[in-house]
Amino acid sequence: MQKLLIPVDGSAHACRAVQDAIAQLQGGAALELHLLNVQPALDGLAQSFVRREDLDAYRREEAAAALASARGMLDAAGIAHVCHVAVGRTADTILRFIEEKGMNGVLMGSHGHGNLLGALLGSVAREVSARAQVPVRLVK
């Protein structure tokens, strides 16, 4: 069984990736689904103004909100999945997760920006697909 990672940020783009995974599973694919939400890290100065407990609670709430749609879609389809939350720079955290958890592939929603706009804005999907050592499929 292939371990498939779907990074989820609560956006419509992420939901399209989940819909794609549901279609693959309904088509007979043998996949173990893992949803990952990455919460941003705060720099040292910002952390000094926020209690650790408050920051942890905030991140849990934000992660739950970001994962809610994807979880609901998978639950409605009767598809087992595992949810994960991590903290850090998004692309680096996704790449580290892929390696540490032995993922066989990644399915990501893409915002679909053109090359110029994507180059100017940067793109987590673009960075993950360029640096990942496993296949990455982008869904628009």
Question: What Rg, in angstroms, do the CA atoms define?
Answer: 15 Å
Number of domains: 1
Runs with pLDDT <50, length 5+?
none
The rough form would be described as globular
CATH superfamily: HUPs
Instruction: Provide the spatial order of strands within the biggest beta sheet.
Output: 3-2-1-4-5
Which structural class do the helices and strands define? alpha/beta
What's the multimeric state? single chain
Main beta sheet: strand number and arrangement? Answer: 5 strands, parallel
How much of the residues is beta strand, in percent?
15-25%
Q: Briefly, what CATH class? A: Alpha Beta
Q: Count the strands?
A: 5
Helicity, as a percent range: 40-55%
- What is the ordering of alpha helices and beta strands? EHEHHEHEHHE
Task: Characterize the structure shown.
By secondary structure, the protein is α/β, with parallel strands linked by helices. The protein has one domain (2-139): HUPs (Rossmann fold, 3-Layer(aba) Sandwich), CATH 3.40.50.620. Helix content is 51%, strand content 22%. Strands 3-2-1-4-5 form a five-stranded parallel β-sheet, sandwiched between helices. The chain is globular. The mean pLDDT is 91.
Core attributes:
Rossmann fold, 6 helices, 5 strands, 140 residues, alpha/beta
Give the structure's gist in a few sentences.
This protein has 140 residues and is of the alpha/beta class. The chain has six helices and five strands. The chain has helices spanning 12-26, 44-47, 52-76, 90-101, 115-121, 124-131; strands at residues 2-7, 31-39, 81-87, 105-109, 136-139.
